[in-house]
Write the structure tokens for this entry.
Amino acid sequence: MEALDPLVLARLQFAANITFHILFPTITIALCWALLFFRWRWVATRNVAWLGAYRLWTKVFALSFAMGVVSGITMSFQFGTNWPGFMERVGNIAGPLLGYEVLTAFFLEATFLGVMLFGHGKVSERVHLFATLMVALGTTASAFWILALNSWMQTPAGFYVENGQYHVVSWLAVIFNPSFPYRFSHVLLASGLTAAFLIAGLSAWQILRRHDTPATAVALRTALIAGAILIPIQIFVGDLHGLNTLAHQPQKIAAIEGVWETERGAPLLLFALPDETTRSNHFEVGVPKAASLILKHDPEDEIRGLNEFEGRHPPVAPLFWGFRIMVGVGLLMLATSWAGVWALRRRAPHALPRGLLWGLVGMTFSGWVATVAGWYVTEIGRQPYLVFGELLTRDLVGPAPAASIAVSLTAYLVTYLVLIVAYVSVLFYLASKPADTQGARA
Amino acid sequence: MSFEQFLPLYFFVILGVAMLLYVLLDGFDLGVGLLLPLAPEADKDRMIAAIGPFWDANETWLVLGVGILLIAFPQAHGQILGALYLPVTAMLIGLILRGVAFDFRVKARDHHKYLWNRSFFAGSLIATLAQGWMLGRYVTGFGEGAGHQAFALLIALTLPAAYVMLGGCWLLLKSEGALQENARRWARASLVPVALGLLLISLATPWVSETVRERWFAMPAFLALLPIPLISVLALAGLAWVLQRSGVRDEFAWLPFVLAVVILLMGFFGLAYSLYPYVIMDRMTLWAAAASTPALTVIFFGTVVTVPAILAYTAFAYWVFRGKSTPLNYG
């Protein structure tokens, strides 16, 4: 494959855009529910700490939402510009799912966002809470539809093929395809964890910089408790998701585990360098029989190896490492959130040990790392197919010449890089502003 | 007409309405973006406040438009976006820049604010020019040759004036004092380029497209079409007149925006008449490009339920922020 292969460029461009995009919905889906919670606590208790938390995190929400909207608009165009073959073949399935996302989610969230952000004093507190609820429902509905489509691409169901065109037999089977319930839960929980660690990290930063207020305390406490509750659920759901993948996409699991030959009592590899040219691993460090135990709940059971799927399995190293990064970050989340909640039993948030606070600052964007690593595992794990087992990615790429894609890819990458740097620095800047100006202006 | 034949037509109308609403709604906030550098520093926040609660939902009409194209006319979707690959990229980067600048400019450090103000302007300008260029390319069915390129350039240069007209009239409605007086001047200044642009486009369109020539100048149709240019001219003249009257800053502040909308509405009708029944001019009719009937039926019922609901809560949001705009505040 040469460097300027349009297929490689089209995939790189779509991956760059979708990676940039997913960062922001991952925050906003759950952050909106957090804002609803903060606002509800303020209305119920009249404790201004909750109002302060609401104001600061509304700013973060507004900025994140804008980043998500603009990169989402880009995506809606790239389906057509990069993968016209996809829409021509499965348009009868993907089209209505995307259509319902626009009709039931995008307008709802975008329209009520204005009332939610700027409607104070113009509408009653109840109408305002209602607007916030509509935005939260909109973001969640959006995740529902796009994950229904994404899951269908992973585990297609409820269709028949006629003259190369895909047609629907049952919409229920299409939407609630085998991997959808797992993926949807996994992503919503990931969003909850991403928002929880973002709030915890920036709040810890405020305490370390001595900019903390009563608002910081309630936000940090909420975030740590939410994180500590969500992470074990996430680990449990992730395990179910893995078993579901084993049933429907065994080659993805084989790549994740680095299993080349089908074997009984497969070890759980903690470290290895998978090599596709020799079709083996170098420097393996593993726990004997543990992979069989985790995946089949029986240490002697069989795991199918990659060699059964030669030519039809995804690249191994990215899955192997992506999965370990995701799980590693998840374990760090478990450790820090439980340590945090444990420490909160005896201490006020501003008196937490400095080591723990720095740890939380370090974990501010841990949700992004785990989410992106997890997405890479599942999406690269779908290759070489675009619709798993049905359509090959390379058959559906668009006609745009490599030079055009190279130009647009460069433009997007520069834009995204600048925006990411600006976004992260503005978040820390917002958190370090004195509390009395927070909320004074948009 | 059978239901099967009706469905593509229905989605053609929805597509048209979505694009029309996009141009009118995002048009005014893109126009305000184009005007931003002209305003004194003190007024910039007030200009942004006049579009703050709306811009996000306004852009969603573009997503609906491209979504309907994708869902209902998948064949045309691939061809259109393929032919417009680079201008689409330019437009998207413009929309990204202005969308985020809107939020960054009040959240970043104060000495970075001017940078985000410039990004807001630059993004608005890039998006507007790209949209005009794409419209021009689309109308000619992506025709080759210098004449077609010049035609697209003409529309690319007219659209910023049209958006400035909309943006100026919107600000006139939503602001007071010195900003309102500026808005009146900006709207007036846009009228000559708008009128000139529309005149040239009207002359050039039948010249670049034989199909349009035959449609416009066939005899009974020609008379039936006459109201379109007549109403445009009247609305333009009316707008020019009303922008000089003192009452325009008080009880008639809504009138310029309505007249500006009428002008663009006439342009839309002219365009729709010239194109129909083609989704891609002279190459693909809406029936040839349509998706399968079951897929269209599923989304048809979706739109029947949701589009009225969307229009209702959009009206609600505009109603909440009726009257003069107030400083944006997260309260």
Q: What stands out?
A: Chain A touches chain B through 72 residues (CB under 8 Å). Confidence is low (pLDDT under 50) at residues 436-442 of chain A.
